[in-house]
Amino acid sequence: MAALPPDRDEQLSLEQLSVDQPKKLDNPERFEEMQAPEQPDGPPRPSLDTLPVEILELITNELPWPKERTPLTLVNKRLHVTVQQILYKTIVLQWGTKRSPVQIAELLRSFTNNPQLRSIVKEINIMPCNPFFESSPNAKIPVAGLHEALDEIINTVGRGEAETAAMRVVAKAGETRAIMPLLFTILPNLETLCLNGHIAAHQDALWAFILNCLETALRSANPEAPKHPFASLKHVRLSLNYHWGHNDITMGFASTFLSLFYLPRIETLTVHAPYGTPLEWPGTDHLVPKHLRTLQVEAYRNDGNGIVKMMLKACPGLKTLIWTVIWSEDDPEGFSLSEMSSVLHEAPGLSDRLVLKLDRSYGKGGSLFGPRLLHIQNPEDFVTGELTLAPLVHIKWLALTWVHLFGLAPSEDLQLSPSTFPPDLERLSIRATGLVTQEHLFWKLFDRVLAARDFLDTCHVYAPKLREVAFGISVFAEHPLEDRIRRDLEHAGRAQGVNIVFHPLCFTPLRSVPARGDDQALPEDWKWAVPSDDEEDEDEDEDGLEIDEVD
């Protein structure tokens, strides 16, 4: 065998050198620098393993989408547990898309492979993003690897043999609407359920399952009966909107949903009632919703009074009521504060908060509180009657809109009386309304300021225990004198021992509303200045309007 060239032998010998015999370099100083350990310039960077759980949760919450959070589970074990808790705490199902069946199948497989995930789920939010997606009712869930999961889930439910066999038959068919209810049967700690949007045909089976579970639990007198899937629910948000062609479904289930009031642990119930749907209370006269504390109702003005009155009568332990009155384009008549007051008198036990809101309904011609209100002949008569909340003796916090207090247009009197407010009222929030540009259509800025000042000057007559008044930003916004207006109102409040707050978080600023000239203009001869605490000199102009002198 021929010998290798010398240079080749030298190359092989260098490759076979051990680690403790490193290759010599021409520059000895460079060699020593490479062998020395690297010294960090500053303090060592903290590892994710040493961060507290609260910091890890903040890091995870900064990523809005689940697909961005999922890779964090591969970083380390601590972050895996933290991200997993956040990922499965709230589940959002977008109903009415081609992705819906696949999403449900993946979720069921996850719960089957990792049973510990079932106890993590606290909230399910079903959001139909396309009510006209007609292929959803008969969409098939991918059955690959799903049959075993369905068998385990059905057996876990632990119901009777006949019911279990029926569930297995419909589940094997692979229909979305048949498998969807199985999610609720395996979530022992589910606390919040949101059913938003339209009720279409593909939700028929889901509604039937939900209501059947509720009615079965209510009628069962056996305390050892199987625990129904919604026994742990505390908060429910329900929207009974429907679209054309499915009115019969809404009419069939709108009355039965009232069984939600009797859930054993229900605390908060938010209901958006459909327009023109009659409601009948279920045949459970012997039961009383003992645990319901907060009720939020959104109902159309035409039939909303009857719905709210019926609910208040059935909830003697109610503490907080949030009532939103919605106008419809098909019902442009006035709004009676007296009728609203008579409904509120059905809940004298309210002791936490009373929130009264106004909103609008969009129709074929756009928003009702847009161009249509401009054609009202007598806007001062659009809101009639008087708000009387004196029977609500336990209310200490009241939030309402500018319209509830002062109507839809300026008038000579405030139309308030000592019976307007609860006798023990301590906090009052004058909220911005949901009626688009309502204040700017009929109330000039000058009229709004005078109404607010007159109210503060006499608030001790209407509410002797009042200590705080919060105004919405949109009431006085978008004017050069906004700061001076605020300071003057704060001074008027201090004179009565009332703290004035301008709270931007509780109100909706009219960012998209441009200044409207006459609506935003003050009289040319009206000079505004904040009066000092030591000296207040007030004069009257030719119209009898009190103004403050400028130093």
UniProtKB/TrEMBL annotation:
In this chain, composition skew of type Basic and acidic residues spans: 1-11, 21-33, 516-527
Q: Where is the signal peptide?
A: none
Give me the ranges of the annotated region Disordered: 1-49, 516-551
**Where is the sequence biased in composition, kind Acidic residues?**
532-551
- By what name is this protein known? F-box domain-containing protein
Please name the source species: Plectosphaerella cucumerina
